[in-house]
Structure formats: structure tokens, C-alpha cells
Amino acid sequence: MSFAVNPPPAVRSFPFSRSPIGRTPRVSMVVRSGAGVPIATAAALPILTKLQNDCATPLPVLRHVADAMATDMRAGLAVDGGSDLKMILSYVDSLPTGNERGLFYALDLGGTNFRVLRTQLGGKDDRVIATECDQVSIPQDLMFGTSEELFDFIASALAKFAQKEGGKFVLPDGRSRETGFTFSFPVKQTSIDSGILIKWTKGFAVSGTPGKDVVACLNEAMKRQGLDMRVSALVNDTVATLAGARYWDNDVMVAVILGTGTNACYVESVDAIPKLNGQKTTSGRTIVNTEWGAFSNGLPLTEFDREMDAESINPGEQLFEKTISGMYLGEIVRRILVRMAESGSLFGKHVPERLRTPFTLGTPNISSMQQDTSEDLEAVGSILYEATGVDSNLDARKMVVEVCDTIAKRGGRLAGAGIVGILQKMEEDSKGIVFRKRTVVAMDGGLYEHHPQYRRYLKDAVTELLGPELSNNVVIEHSKDGSGIGAALLAATNSIYEH
Fold it and tell me: What pLDDT does 442 receive?
């Protein structure tokens, strides 16, 4: 999953290099006192001070979030609708073993781009023989169009990709192509290869899809494109990420996506899921998709968060996602800067219209500005000008960096508390087993991958909550593009053909 907005060309720097201590030097004069600070900057200081207080995530706040996450998980497992967390059953009861063989595809739809992938699997000895992947941007109008238009566009791209098959990629005679379908929106799953869309998130508002089987929508579109392919597994991106990471590491128990949107899943014992009503699986375990973006209990929200939420397409919903994910961090910062510009004249008397335009400042911009360690904060000035039309002096840039760091710190630490909440729930049910051994959390998504400060704040929060001894057993690993290969692996695991 990637950010929705790229950094301006003048300052494009992904992947970023780190400063020796991994963060932009703090500017104490900005946050401690207005003495000696230019009038414009001093006038914005009260806004910054209140922001930092409202966004604060001391240990008691983190503990409350972690505890509330675990409590909401239990309520969601007890009965559908029992909490903000939907705790959706994935129907993935068996994870890849390494024995899988053959050619398998994956379609990964989870944000402003989607990916198509194919992989040739060679079993225990050869594992992944070869992989190819293409990424396709979704036109903005299709995010607000009809279901048929969106799925026809996706199926067309998949068909074009399949036509390029060759070389190391060989489909055995007599077989149809099979694909895993990673669909990273809330779905009421009814089997491993079917699921009803509950609602769109992440800025999508496609008509005609909610209440329908998304696999049926894709199958119909593939038929219209003349593509002979069947969906063997419908999964969420977190579920696919967990499967992809587990293929290489048996200690993976949790997967988290932090990109344009966010979500988490984990391996759960079926005995801990009351709403299964005694149903069993061959393994005794299954993967549960938490849909944690909807979590809202005890979050430290600001007036800027509330304003953004009120103007969103889903007011009052997905509050955790709106606080910690890549789609929203830059927009929160932009709104704060507008207030500072209007009330504190941070950028002079004139406020450029582009600064007033929603989502003109992207989360990659925030990350780039946090990593500018130059004395004059030249990159910060360049980003502000290229993205929003703002001319800034050094003192204004220092203030902007403080705002960026405040919002990124809150997001990273809350994400870390959410992870601990999941582990805490697992620990309690396993009677102390989880924290006593190596437990891996697989992470994917552009926000986690490309924002080192955010990543460090997340890990710091996990360490604070668990303490140094227990946190040593919790390994947070980056699983790059795990959801793509994971979906293909789950298609293989659930193939109609023998391996």
C-alpha cells in the first residue's frame, strides 16, 4: 500500500536517509517561550502549545488505548456488532506450508493504486522461483463511479498483465489460472472465495457495490474481458501480509498495514471466538481481520481532527485510521498550518489558496520535512512552496517541523499501543505464552516503510508498554509487498488442483 501523494520533484527522497539520531533536531525556542521569537511565530505559539497538549500520548494514555483495544476485540469476537471492531472471520484456516507448486496470480486492491502479480512456486526445495508485478493507478473518477466501471477497469488491467505471461512462468496443461484477491475494505466474508462488501473506506465511494459479493463482481468483469481466471481466495491485505510473512517465518502471529489506510489481523484460536458457535477448523485456529481503523476508544483528538472528520465522506467513522494512517496525517498538518497562518500570520499576511485546498499537503511531505537536518531547513521551505505555494522564513519552518513531528508522534505511538492491545489479548488467552517466546509482527505499507520517525515512535511505544524484557521477544519486521505474494500463496493453498 502506498501514499496517495508523492513528494514534489525538488525534494523527492524516498527511500530516505536518516540523520545520525534518526530525527530532525528539536527547536526548543519554539516550544518553550515566545521571547525573542518573531511576532508571526510567537502569535502561532499558543496554537502549537495547545496542539501538543491535545496530542500528548503519555504512558497512561497508551495503556488505556491498548486495554480498550483488547476489550473491543473480545466484544467483537463475542457477537457481530459487539464493538467498533468488526473482528471479521477470514476463513483462512490453513496457512502456506512451502509445499505449494505452480503458477498463481494475485490482485491487490487496497488504496489509490492496485497491483497485479504472478508467481511461480516450486515447493519446499525451490520455494518462490520467480515473481512479476505491475502497479496501476486508479483514475479519480472511478473512485466515485459505478461498481461495473471500477471492476471492468481492474479486470482489463489483469487481462493485459496475463497476456505478458511467459519465460519462467508456466501454466500446467489442463489448468485454468487462479488468483488470490486482496480486497482491503470491510467485507462480510462468507467463505474463502466470497464476501459481501460492508462499505467503502479510504476515500472510495463506488455505487452499486455495498451489499454485493465482490468476488462475483470481479468474476463478471473478467468474463466481460474474456479472461479465463478464477478467484481461489478472497483476503484482506493484512491477512495476505500475514500469510506471506508466515511462509518464511513460523513465528509470525500478527500483521499490520500502515499505508494510505490501516488495518491489523492476527492468528486466533477458534475456542476464543464465541460467535463461531462451536464451529471448528482442521487446525483449531483461524485468522481474524480486526478492521481496527474503526477503533475510537480514548483517542486523543484535536479540534483539527474533528473538523476533518466532520467534512469527510464518513463522519464519525474510522477514527483510528484518521489518526494514524497515511491518507490523513498530511491533511491534519495542513489544517493546523491554515489556522496558524490565519490566526498567527505564520506565513505573512497572505494565505495562498493552495494551502486552503484539502489534501494538497501529503504525508510523504510531512516525512520529508521531518528529516531535513540542514541549518536553514531548505527542504522544508521547498516542500511548503511546491506543495502549497507558501513562502516561509526559517522561524516559520521550525514551527512547521514541530507541527509535523507532533502529528507523526501521536500517530506512531497510538499505532504501537494498538499492536500491544492485540498482543495483550493473545497473551491473556494463551495464559502467558505469547510474551515468553519470539512473536513476530509483520508490517507493511508505505507509511511504515518510508517514515522513519513514525516507525521509531511506534517501536518506542511498544517498548514503553511492555518493558525492555518482554519487548525483546516481540519482533516487529517489515514485510515489503507481503500482501501481494501472500494472496498468491493463499490462492495456491486453496487451489482446486493438487500440488
Answer: 96
pTM of the entire predicted model: 0.83
Is the C-alpha dihedral spanning 391, 12, 485, 180 positive or negative? positive
**Catalytic residue selected from 72, 86, 108, 202:** 202
- For residue 199, indicate whether it is catalytic: no
Tens of pLDDT, residue by residue over 429-461, are: 887 778 889 999 999 999 999 999 999 999 999
- Catalytic residue check, 237: yes
The single residue of 237, 309, 372, 444 carrying the catalytic annotation is: 237
Instruction: Give CA–CA dist 490/239, Å, rounded.
Output: 10
The rounded distance, in Å, linking the Cα atoms of 443 and 477 is 6
| Residue showing cell 462451536 | 278
Distance CA 92, CA 102 (A): 20
> Cα Rg for the chain, rounded, in angstroms?
23
The DSSP line for 398-441 is HHHHHHHHHHHHHHHHHHHHHHHHHHHHHHHHTTS-GGGS-EEE
For residue range 406-436, list pLDDT tens digits in order.
Answer: 999 999 999 999 999 999 999 998 877 788 8
